[in-house]
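#struct-pred
JK: can someone run the complex with iron/sulfur cluster? inputs below
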Amino acid sequence: MTFSDTVKKHGLLLERSQTTTLQVNVGLTCDLTCRHCHQQAGPHRPEQMSAAVIDEVIACARRLRFETADITGGAPELFPGLSRLVTALAQSTPKVIVRTNLTALARPEARSLPELYRSCGVTVAASLPALNPEQTEAQRGSGVWSASLDMLRRLNDLGYGREGSGLELILISNPAGAFLSPAQAQAEQRFHRDLERRHGITFSKLFTLANAPLGRFRSWLESSGNLTPYLEKLEAGFNPCAVEGLMCRSFISVDWNGHLYDCDFNLAAGIPLGGTRRHITELRELPQPGSPIATADYCFTCTAGSGSSCSGSTVP
Ligand code: SF4
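RT: done, structure tokens with the ligand placed:
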């Protein structure tokens, strides 16, 4: 059964609510080639946002007043226009989030970014899939574990993830294989306990995410014979309570060319906003509540179990 038929079967409607978040994908260049990456980002990917599209994104954020701007990639740190984008969005948008794989933030060209983030009050959302080097490096590559811990300590030294600092440090964990994440609240307790006791690292909160069967993760599912069982697992795990909190109900994603999507997964799959190709320059007002959302088979990723989104579980 298709995703939209499954939603209907449960007497629900998948349509936009209030659009609050502009997610900005600045491009696909990355220093890592993680196995689960639905964007297939990597060092070999040249796609990056042009100066003209940065201007259009900044103008759009000024005109439409989103509550949140969420900057992602690739590794945003390898995008030369990042400082300009962050500084401008922080002036127009109450909350700015920048996603990081932590290793790119440690590169020489990113040296000044942590201080810039602090001065702009940016929330840092950092990938840390697991609490051990083996699982982390199986997904993200050798050397990533200790580089990630070093960067988390540096962020802590700046006040990020320290109680009372007002500087939010979110960790993001995703499974290593063809299964779903454990419950977010329990995983968060475990991460807090383990990182503080063993490494002296603190953070604000943990988001657990499911891997979407797209891009490099889909290729791995296919080559390992896990694609059909994983799709079946996602579909069987459909939780009607997860529909209300789906990110596509409140997000707009813009790619490096300025094209619009309902979410980052649709961006990766090339399925445009509401099914109709549009550019950010055409976005004169926010989509009305009730506007359509384009869906596909990978949407079951977002409704399986406790639900999954760029903001973690969607069901408490
Ligand atoms: S993949 Fe995107 S469109 Fe589909 S349910 Fe998830 S957030 Fe919504």
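RT: quick notes.
The two ends are 26 Å apart (CA to CA).
The CA atoms of residues 175 and 181 lie 6 Å apart.
JK: thanks, will look after standup
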